[in-house]
Structure formats: structure tokens, C-alpha cells
Specification:
5-stranded antiparallel β-sheet, Chorismate synthase, AroC fold, single chain, 439 residues
């Protein structure tokens, strides 16, 4: 299968499927000397994993990552403290599938001849014919986005070391739009959202807080823990959140990350209303990157805004816009142009950011702003016209598989990670190129 890799210097390759044994992430270009832990990766994975509220599919994948290679197994010589740190070799992460029970496979087998409208199941059958990995939609399932999030944890750590931060959030859901919120406030609330979700997650408590999996353990020592978790799926006690306290102390809605809690409440209400009608809804995710140096990017076929357009690769994303995006069609040149001036410290400043921090495919030094349009989940609880893709007869499809009422609530961490992968790859190219001719 082609098309499962990304990047030029920082290269990401993913594999696996929804109901295969699991998924893998293979990273090349990870700098040596970094300390990346499985718990750190998990903390981002739990932001997108299903089974956490009525806004997500009831599938209960724990998404426990295993770092398989790319780090030192022990201190390499007396006086060195480099155990567990990256060593410059390919960094590989495994994410086992633990909630793939046969009753769910049976459901897919019964309905796989009748493809879901709006899903890849018809097109993938045309490409792979009878060999198509159609159980749970295979690699065309949103399940594969866990690989992007895991890779993004590594990329964000490298970027942060260079002063670059990437933050995403839900901008719009089910037709409810969030107002403008400053990036500092968004990040404060994002940190609180992450902390609250982790502290109320039974898998985090069982696996990491308890020390069942910790740095320094061998792969074979971790496998019994995974087997134990698999047997307990569906039996972990629910951890109720004190929504009033969370709202008062942190100003967030714990189910959906929109930095305006009142708007988040309205989003959740509307999503649930649409879900109860048997349908699904979409939305918009916004990503903001700060600290990006000016001049980063490449011309023509590798323009940075074009590279960010690769986020169309995220399942359910149907449009990507940078800066003012589609709104530029209604602006005049004088309105759209981001005029410049030099401040008293002799630094170049801009009076607006309609370009989203990118002109000519190169960064301007402003914040990079990207938005993703997320379509409604194709799987719904309403009868839909479809076909039998083998016999070529007309059929009616009634959804019987597990589903998300909306995807926007889980795609924002994917967008944050994907943006980080692209920015890190271009930062490495930029630094390397500049280093060839600048002192």
C-alpha cells in the first residue's frame, strides 16, 4: 500500500488497521538525546480515543502505546545518564488493538457487502477487491488517526525545544460557532482540559499512575499488562466528573474542547440533539502555531500552506483553509493585504494576519492559523440507499456498527499533531538550508 508516509527529513510512516492486531508508527529524523515516555504519548492519545462520552463511538480502545525502538535500553557507559533517551535511530511506537471482539466483527461481516454512503468502503473495494481490509474499515477507519497523534507528540516535543507551540481546538460544531479567544487563554484552558481528562481516566490510573507500565520496562514485561487491560475492558469503573467544580476552577467543558465553556455547552447540546434524531454532525477545527521563524518553507510544489493542505488526509476533513481562507474572495486587495511597519525596537510588525502567517509558501513570522472543515460522520442510525457491491443490486442500509455522533470533538488533537509533523519537517529543512550559507 502506497501513501502511508509523510515528510522529507522528519519522516513518518504508519501501518495497521481498525481490526488488525494494532497500528505502528515509524519515525525517522528524531533527534538524539530526547526523553519521550509512553505516558507522555498516552496523554495525547486519550484526547482522541473513543468510548469517553456520548460525543464519541462506544468502542473502548485503551490506546496504550508501546515504544518499541529508538531509545537507549540502559546507560551506555559509566558516567552517562542516557537510558531511555532517543539515540537517533528510527523511533517506533506500537498501539495494540484491544477492543476488537468477535461480535463486532460479525456485524461488519453482515454489512460489508452494502457500503456505507459517504465512507471509503465502496472505493476501497474497487481498489483492493476481495482482499480489501473491510473489517472496521481497516486503514480507512478513523482508528488510524491514533498513529498521527502519537507521532505528533514527538514532533511537538522537538518544536517546543525550539520555541514553537502548536495548539488546536474546536472552533465550530453542529452549526454552533465559537467567538475569538486569545491564544494564551486557549492554551491555559487546553492544559486544564488535558489534566482533567487524564485525572479522570481509569486507564491512566490503572496503567501509569499505579506504575504497572513505567520507563525502563522491557517489551515482554509490558505484554502481560496489555493482556490484563484487555480482560478488563468494559469493567473499569466510570469516573464521574464534578462538572460544576471543573467549570468554576478551569472554565472548560470536560466533554468537548472549545475554550468558551458556554459555547461548548451549546455545541454538546446540539450534537446530542442531532444524534438522538439518528443523524450526525460536522464542524471546524482551528490550529494556531506560534514562535515559527520567518522564511521557513519552500517555493512552488512544497509551499508551506500547500503542505498544510495535506491535512485533507485526515479522514472526514473536506477542506483546509489558511488565514482568512475562503473569506478572501469577498475582500478587496486593500482589505486583504497585511500591511507592515517597523516598531520602535526595529522589529517588523503586521497590522493583520489574513495570510495566516504564510506568503509565497514561506512563513512571515506571524502566527500560523489553519482551519479544517470536518464532515458529519458517514455512519448514522437512519436507513440509507446503497448497493450490494458484489452482486450490484440496490439495497437499503441500516447502521448496526458503533459510531461517533460527530468527529470534530476527536479530530482537534489529530490536527494539532499533523500540523506539528509538517512544521517540524520544514523547520529541519529550513535550519539545514540556512546553515549551509549563514554564519
Amino acid at each position: 500500500m502506497l501513501g502511508c508516509d509523510l515528510g522529507t527529513i522528519f519522516r513518518t510512516t504508519v501501518a495497521g488497521g481498525s481490526y488488525q492486531d494494532g497500528l505502528t508508527i515509524h519515525l525517522q529524523g528524531v533527534p538524539p538525546g530526547m526523553l519521550i515516555t509512553e505516558e507522555q504519548i498516552y496523554e495525547d492519545l486519550l484526547l482522541r480515543k473513543p468510548g469517553q462520552s456520548e460525543l464519541a463511538s462506544p468502542r473502548r480502545e485503551p490506546d496504550i502505546p508501546i515504544i518499541y525502538s529508538g531509545i537507549n535500553a540502559a546507560d551506555t557507559m559509566p558516567g552517562f545518564t542516557n537510558a531511555g533517551h532517543t539515540n537517533g535511530t528510527p523511533f517506533v511506537i506500537l498501539i495494540p488493538n484491544l477492543d476488537r471482539h468477535f461480535e463486532h466483527i460479525d456485524q461488519y461481516q453482515v454489512t460489508n457487502r452494502t457500503p456505507r454512503p459517504g465512507h471509503a468502503s465502496y472505493a476501497s473495494y474497487q481498489k483492493y477487491n476481495q482482499w480489501d481490509d473491510a473489517i472496521g474499515a481497516g486503514i480507512f477507519s478513523g482508528r488510524y488517526t491514533s498513529t498521527i497523534v502519537a507521532a505528533g507528540v514527538v514532533a511537538k516535543a522537538v518544536l517546543a525545544d525550539k520555541g514553537i507551540q502548536v495548539t488546536a481546538y474546536v472552533k465550530e460544531a453542529a452549526g454552533v460557532k465559537a467567538p475569538e479567544v486569545g491564544i494564551d487563554e486557549i492554551r491555559t484552558k487546553a492544559a486544564a482540559y488535558r489534566r482533567i481528562r487524564k485525572e479522570h481516566d481509569p486507564i491512566w490510573q490503572f496503567v501509569y499512575q499505579s506504575g504497572r507500565i513505567k520507563p525502563g520496562m522491557r517489551f515482554l514485561e509490558k505484554l502481560p499488562v496489555l493482556a490484563e487491560v484487555e480482560k478488563m475492558i468494559g469493567k473499569f469503573p466510570a469516573m464521574e466528573m464534578d462538572e460544576a467544580r471543573i467549570r468554576k476552577e478551569h472554565g472548560i467543558n470536560s466533554k468537548l474542547f472549545c475554550p468558551d465553556p458556554d459555547v461548548a455547552d451549546e455545541m454538546v447540546k446540539k450534537i446530542v440533539e442531532i444524534k438522538e434524531s439518528g443523524d450526525s454532525s460536522g464542524g471546524v477545527v482551528e490550529v494556531v502555531a506560534t514562535g515559527v521563524p520567518a522564511g521557513m518553507g519552500e517555493p512552488v510544489f512544497k509551499k508551506l500552506d500547500g503542505e498544510l493542505g495535506r491535512m485533507m488526509s485526515i479522514g472526514a476533513v473536506k477542506a483546509v483553509e489558511v488565514g482568512a481562507g475562503l473569506a478572501v474572495k469577498d475582500l478587496t486587495g486593500s482589505q486583504c493585504n497585511d500591511s507592515m511597519y517597523v516598531d520602535k525596537n526595529k522589529k517588523v510588525q503586521f497590522r493583520s494576519n489574513n495570510a495566516g502567517g504564510i506568503t509565497g509558501g514561506l512563513t512571515t513570522g506571524q502566527n500560523i492559523v489553519v482551519r479544517l472543515a470536518v464532515k458529519p460522520t458517514p455512519t448514522i442510525s437512519k436507513d440509507q440507499d446503497t448497493i450490494d457491491k458484489v452482486s450490484l443490486e440496490n439495497k437499503i442500509l441500516s447502521a448496526v456498527t458503533r459510531r461517533d455522533p460527530t468527529l470534530v470533538a476527536r479530530i482537534w488533537p489529530v490536527a494539532e499533531a499533523f500540523t506539528s509533523l509538517i512544521l517540524l519537517d520544514h523547520l529541519m529543512m529550513h535550519v539545514g538550508y540556512q546553515g549551509m550559507w549563514r554564519e
